[in-house]
Amino acid sequence: AGDSKDYDREVDSVCPYCGVGCQIKFKIKDDKIKYVEGIDGPANENRLCVKGRFGFDYINHPHRLTKPLIRRDDAPAKGLNVDPGNLMTHFREASWDEALDFAAGGLAKLRAQKGSYVAGFGSAKCSNEEAYLFQKLIRQGFGHNNVDHCTRLCHASSVSALIENVGSGAVTATFNEIENADVAIVIGANPIENHPVAATYFKQFTKRGGKLIVMDPRGVGLGRFATHRLQFEAGGDVSMLNAFMHVIVEEGLYDADYIAQFTENWEAMKEHLKGYSPEAMAETCGLDPEELRAAARTFAAGKAGMIFWGMGVSQHIHGTDNARCLIALALMTGNVGKPGAGLHPLRGQNNVQGASDAGLIPMFLPDYQSVMDDGVRSAFTKVWESEDFSNEKGLTVVEIMHAIHDDAIKGMYILGENPAMSDPDVDHARDALAKLEHLVVQDIFLTETANYADVILPSSAWYEKSGTVTNTNRQVQMGRPVAPAPGEAKEDWWIEVELAKRLGLDWTYTHPKEVFAEMKLNMGSLNNITWDRLEKTAVTYPSLTPEDPGQAIVFGDGFPRAEGRARFAPAKVISPDETPDADYPFVLITGRQLEHWHTGSMTRRSKVLDAVEPEANCSLHPKTLRQLGVEPGGYLRLSTRRGSVTVMARADRAVAENNVFLPFAYVEAAANILTNAALDPYGKIPEFKFSAVKVEKADAP
Ligand code: SF4
User: Which of 26, 47, 48 for mutating ligand 1's site (highest number of atoms within 8 Å of CB)?
Assistant: First the structure.
């Protein structure tokens, strides 16, 4: 911090990292951020975590892209082989006109051959307006729905289950509603590291006497505050949750009135649960039946309960089944639509909620309106003044990589995503990117994905642009430019518009507010929310009147489904796609850590954050390390059927003895070299949370 002499202006905006969406006051001197302070946003009430407070200096890193680049004719073969400090071995600088003509020309050439040869990945780190424009560009410009983004790698399975059974893909209550709860479950999430400001509300809840039930294969930090800690076997979640609900049914602890008034399929659910007693499930979920029964009684006894979940729930081939169980648990205990109650998948990226709402999804147009519905498409093409486009669902993230290998996709436009780090079985994804005939990458750094680009379009960081963003709470907030973009870098919406024009589209937007106004025409969720309102204050959707700050809790009087009823969806136990065996005896779980963000492109270029966590690391139980003959700080080789990485070992009693935890932010030991690309059949999300792995002592790399 500093005093008033330290800065010459202040700007209020939103944190670019996690889905909590903390509001921040930036103190700026000579167009550089000097320091920041948390302000009184609806989600953070002045609080910030280490990323929001110290993670802003990446925008000044010398590796920022400042000019458009085109791959040199004499560049070496495509691969992960470009030195970010010396790009000219592979690329040459170009004017914006030349780069945009080249980018659009390559995509148009493939469109002329066969419209569906092109696919696009938009970004959950861009604004709502930029996400909307991206999906519009693919649909209007190429006539199909091959457009997706990182929700496919995080909460697609949660959204799938929520839409199926509740009728809406967003949270039913803000996380701050925990203030009114007396019981809460946090499952498959590590909020102290991944949603740190939300975690402060969870801790305060326990200090007030709220009963917290933490369920995770790893002993996550919130466990210290828990009334019940259920450290179940990795992959045993559906069995545990079915057993949990079995107790509630068997002991008559359910809310019969709520079930009768607001739900359907209850009898089938009750019948299904008969076979899942805690005793019958003890082996598959690894929990003492009495411990599980006690936790179930605690949850059912609460007057108002919330359920929070993260990637540990969603990133499985049974991710949708996991979410179905959590929805069923909330419904049977009457814990939706009242103060202190609700379902809350903790969204990861700062705008993954908004990007999904804006239609950056291959099966949905904005507001989760099906691409298969003729009336829906016609409402959009009327506004867009364009022809109809495909009524078939497009390909998802991992499916697009397979389609490239099958020659069904030959060109891509990738904005702010990094599949060369984030995709499962990433060598397969990298080979796919290398195979593309034309790859347009728009980003702020030479990401691993940009290594494979034919043309790179330098864009603005979040701190350098205008646009709205929607957090995990459904709160729409205004992002404001804090500093100028470096060199010739441009705002993403401007680049999208210029590309669209060169693809023959009649786009005339001159400011994101014009895009927002267009979005409102077909997005009922934005009713009563205007750009001018957002300039003054955050608004939660749905907002019922022009003055309504928005509904923190929804579905108190029924659900947006047939007859207003939510549905119980019984879920059977299925095995992970790959189970440990003699060759690969451990379970690999990947995830994040507090200081690093996703593929590390921002936080590893932030001095403070990288200084705290500078090296790729994995965590194992100390007993396991002893058995392997490795001291903490020594090195391990982790191998799966897809590849190997060598990484520094840490001892952590929170990790189960047969598990390995590996963060995925480090390119030098890329976790996704190891992960399995098997998909959940509904959400099409990969099984990042369970791979069979071999662990051996190794020398330092
Ligand atoms: Fe940013 Fe999330 Fe930390 Fe808030 S909790 S400061 S939004 S990273």
Answer: 48
**Range list of β-strands (E), 267-329:** 305-309
What residues are paired with 596 via a beta bridge?
593
Closest ligand 1 atom, residue 14 Cα: 7
Closest Cα to atom 2, ligand 1: which residue?
18
**Token couple for 219:** 């002993």
Quote the CA–CA distance of 271 and 288 in Å, as a whole number.
23
* Torsion (CA) 85, 89, 95, 97 in degrees, nearest 10: -120
What's CA 317's distance to the chain center, in Å? 17
Distance 42 CA to ligand 1 centre (A): 13
Contact (Cβ atoms closer than 8 angstroms) between residue 470 and residue 357: yes
Q: What was the ipTM of the complex prediction?
A: 1.00
Q: How far is the CA of 121 from the centre of ligand 1 (A)?
A: 24
Model confidence at 3, in pLDDT bands (50, 70, 90)?
Answer: low
Q: Is the CB of 52 under 6 A from ligand 1?
A: yes
CA 86 – CA 692 distance, rounded (Å):
38
Determine contact, residues 549/41, Cβ cutoff 8 Å.
no
Phi–psi pair at 135, nearest 5 degrees: -70, -30
Tell me, using a 6 A CB cutoff, whether residue 20 lines ligand 1. yes
User: Distance, CA 20 to ligand 1 centroid (Å)?
Assistant: 6
pLDDT range class, residue 562, cuts 50, 70, 90: confident
DSSP helix, strand, coil percent of the chain (3-state; round to 5): 40, 20, 40
Our mutation pick for probing the ligand 1 site, out of 20, 35, 44, counting the most ligand atoms within 8 A of Cβ, is 20
* Whether the predicted pLDDT of 1 surpasses 80: no
Which atom of ligand 1 lies at the shortest distance from residue 21's CA?
A: 7
Q: Residue 328 corresponds to which tokens in the numbers above? A: 């069923």
Cα(205)–Cα(17) distance, integer angstroms:
24
Tell me, using a 6 A CB cutoff, whether residue 571 lines ligand 1. no
Ligand 1 mutation target, pool 25, 49, 606, most atoms within 8 A of CB:
49
Report the separation in Å between the CA atom of 160 and the middle of ligand 1, taken as the mean of its atom positions.
Answer: 26
Total-model pTM: 0.96
CA distances from 20 to 94, 103, 197, 231, 575 (A): 38, 35, 7, 26, 33
pLDDT tens for each residue of 644-687? 999 999 999 999 999 999 999 999 999 999 999 999 999 899 99
Burial of residue 463, with CB atoms counted within 10 A of its CB: 0-12 exposed, 13-18 middle, 19 or more buried: buried
Question: How far, in Å, is the centroid of ligand 1 from the Cα of 19?
Answer: 7
Long-range own/partner contacts, residues 130-133 (CB < 8 A, 24 or more apart): 130/415, 130/467, 130/492, 130/493, 130/496, 130/512, 131/351, 131/354, 131/355, 131/358, 131/359, 131/360, 132/358, 132/359, 132/366, 132/515, 132/518, 132/519, 133/493, 133/496, 133/497, 133/500, 133/509, 133/515
Q: Strand 183-187 vs strand 211-215: parallel, antiparallel, or unpaired?
A: parallel
| DSSP class per residue in 569-592 | --------SS---SSS-EEEEEE-
Report CA(697)–ligand 1 centroid distance (Å): 36
Task: Please report the beta strands in 6-107, taking only residues with DSSP state E, as ranges in sequence order.
Answer: 9-14, 23-29, 32-38, 69-71, 91-93
By the 10 Å C-beta count (0-12 exposed, 13-18 middle, 19+ buried), 306 is classed as: buried
Any ligand 1 atom below 6 A from CB of 48: yes
Q: Does residue 2 have a pLDDT over 80? A: no
Calculate the dihedral angle through the C-alpha atoms of 457, 461, 465, 470, rounding to the nearest 10 degrees: 110
| Cα of 172 from ligand 1 centre, angstroms | 21
Is 548:528 a contact under the CB 8 Å cutoff? yes
- Please give the number of the atom of ligand 1 that sits closest to the Cα of 471: 7
**What atom in ligand 1 is closest to the CA of residue 43?**
4
Dig out the tokens for 151 from the structure. Answer: 């929700």
Rounded distance, CA 489 to CA 623, Å?
A: 51
Q: Is 15 in the pocket of ligand 1 (CB under 6 A)?
A: yes
